[in-house]
Amino acid sequence: YINNYIVYEAVCNLSLDDFIYELGFRESTNRYYVVNTYGYLGRYQFSYRTLRNLGFKVSKKEFLQNELLQDQALIQLLLHNKQLLNKTIKEYDGKYVNGIRITESGILAAAHLLGPYRVKRYLKYGEIAQDGYGTTVTDYISHFSGYSLNLG
User: Packing angle between helix 104-114 and helix 116-125, nearest 10 degrees?
Assistant: First the structure.
């Protein structure tokens, strides 16, 4: 139990910066200029539609060439998803669903991957959605569990 406690404590000390780095790594190996086979853009693999919905009125080329803009878009999306999922986060944070520990950071990472609706469907009905490459909502919920995001 001591070892599990130490591991748990280490996970809880992970910050927003750690979360951003790991999310960028999982999405693009932290490459700002990459476009995947589905057309998702940059370090965090944004769809152009999501960028437009967040209010970013730039071309794909401009977005790919601007690292700061990509980082800003990620923070804006995290805040947007947190607002949409606030009730869900309060209901599930700290609980286990199908053996997976649910945390705010895991929920927000999964929402980045597949959208807030699919995260809610998993938590409420156990529906395991996946992206075009086979990464599941549960992959992100569990992998990104326990970061301290302090998004407000």
Answer: 120
53-81 pLDDT tens trace: 999 999 999 999 999 999 999 999 999 99
Greatest Cα-to-Cα distance within the chain, rounded to the nearest angstrom: 52
Structure tokens at 54: 């967040």
Number of CB atoms found within 10 A of residue 84's CB? 16
27 burial via Cβ count (<10 Å: 0-12, 13-18, 19+): buried
Number of neighbours of residue 107 by Cβ within 10 angstroms: 27
Is the separation of the CB atoms in 85 and 119 below 8 Å? Answer: yes
With 0-12 / 13-18 / 19 or more C-beta atoms within 10 angstroms meaning exposed / middle / buried, residue 7 is exposed
pLDDT of the residue at 115: 96
13: confidence class by pLDDT, cuts 50, 70, 90: confident
60 membership: H or E segment, kind and range:
helix 60-64
